[in-house]
Amino acid sequence: MKSAFLKSSSFWALGSRAYEVFHHLWGAIGAATCAIALLLCGGCQPPGKPTTAAIELKPEEVHDFAFLYQQNCAGCHGQDSKGNSALGLANPVYLAIADDDTIRRVSASGISGSLMPAFAKNSGGTLTDEQIEILVHEMRARWGKANEASGAPPYTAKQPGDSARGAKAFAVFCAGCHGPEGKGTAKGSSIVDDSFLALVSDQSLRTTVIAGRPDLGQPDWRNCAPGRPMKPQEVTDVVAWLVAQRKPNPGQPYASNQQFQTQN
């Protein structure tokens, strides 16, 4: 009887000890699990509270150049910034002849009598001055090239153009692609089309003659004739000839056929 009691006591003692060991082990596992969970969730937001990344920015708070370009510029200037219905802004010659003030003014206020709208809020657009500045700065930083347009004609004309001289310059530099009357050939489209001339400003014509349209195969001022870059006055005269081809349609968006090299 005593022997059975001792055996029973030993059994219960052993069981109690095992229980204590199990209890301590389980507690340690639970503590470790909680610690790991706390480490993993240390950066978690309280339930229902959105993270910073999940909060949508207001339009005026967007400062990402790629997004601003995509939303405001890509439709006309191309998804790759190399041109679409308008000259590519990644054209290094354009960026060489147009200074920051010019690009800022055009972006903010648009170009009167053309398809280029105003983007600044104070001109009826949607962009803040800071966002305009981001576009201007990043265009040059990303796409500008030093000395790309050494010796290029200036962005704006210094003297009035002469359409008679312009006709002669056109024959030398432009007729090979656009035809003797500018009505187009297999190499180039018509550039005397009434709708085209009604929607493009004098300055846009000048900019295109100087900077070219690489996306359309149109060379810049250096490569319109073999070994013979256009002189500044020749550019001015060609633009004067193009402006003179506009027809005075009712409701014309341009001011006057007599205005040459208008600064818009």
Low-confidence parts lasting 5 or more residues at pLDDT below 50? 4-8, 257-264
CATH architecture of the domain at 59-143: Orthogonal Bundle
CA-based gyration radius:
35 Å
Give the total of beta strands.
0
Could you describe the 3D structure shown?
- This protein is an all-alpha fold.
- Among the domains are: 59-143, Cytochrome Bc1 Complex, Chain D, domain 2 (Orthogonal Bundle), CATH 1.10.760.10; 163-244, Cytochrome Bc1 Complex, Chain D, domain 2 (Orthogonal Bundle).
- The chain is 48% helix and 0% strand.
- The chain has helices at 2-40, 65-72, 74-77, 92-97, 100-109, 129-143, 163-173, 175-178, 194-199, 202-211, 232-244.
- Helix 5 crosses helix 6, helix 7 (163-173) crosses helix 11 (232-244) and helix 10 (202-211) packs across helix 11.
- The longest helix has 39 residues, at 2-40.
- The radius of gyration is 35 Å and the shape is elongated.
- The termini are far apart.
- The model is unreliable at 4-8 and 257-264 (pLDDT under 50).
